[in-house]
Amino acid sequence: GEDVEQSLFLSVREGDSSVINCTYTDSSSTYLYWYKQEPGAGLQLLTYIFSNMDMKQDQRLTVLLNKKDKHLSLRIADTQTGDSAIYFCAETRPFNDYKLSFGAGTTVTVRA
Amino acid sequence: EAQVTQNPRYLITVTGKKLTVTCSQNMNHEYMSWYRQDPGLGLRQIYYSMNVEVTDKGDVPEGYKVSRKEKRNFPLILESPSPNQTSLYFCASSLDRTSNYGYTFGSGTRLTVV
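Output (C-alpha cells, whole complex):
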C-alpha cells in the first residue's frame, strides 16, 4: 500500500538481530501493527503499538515508533530459522473507518 | 477454538464462471473484511462489514460482491471472474471496527482464474 511502505527483503544470520523498518504517511494513525505470515498460512498478529507510545517490548520483539518521522520498526533479537516469514506493517486511522492498511511486506530470510 | 474459517483453500476456475468463497467466524465479531494479497502490493481491502446487513467498499471492490446476512458469515462472491482476480484472498474479523487488538485472519484461499 502506498500509505505504508516497507523494504521488500531482509537477510539475516541466525542468532543476529533483525530490524524491519516501515514508514507511514498519515499522522492520524492510531494503532500500528506488525503481522507475520509464514509460508502457506494466514497472517498472525505479532504485536501492536498505540500512537502515543514510543516503544513496546515483548520477549524477543521490540517495537519503536518515531511519530515525528512517521517511522516504525520491529527488532527481533536472537533471530531463529522459525522467524523466516513475511512481516507486514499495518495501521488504522479513526477517520478512515479504522480500516487496516498494510505495507507490501518484508520477506525475512534467516540463514545458518 | 476461536478462528476464521475460509473455504475452499484452493480453487481453479474458468473466466466467467460464478464462484463464492465462504468465510465464517466463531468469535461473535462484529467487524469482518476481505483482503486480496498480491506480490509487491501487500494486502488490499476489497469489502468490509461493520455488522449484519452493513457492508461497504474497500480499496479494490470492482468485480466482487459480499453479503452479511448473519453475524458469523461473510461470503465473497465473484459473479464473473477474470484472470486479474487470480490472487490469494484472506478473510478477517475483529471484535469491533477499532481493531485495537488486531484482526484474526483466515488461512487464505488461493484462487486461479484461467
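Chain B touches chain A through 27 residues (CB under 8 Å).
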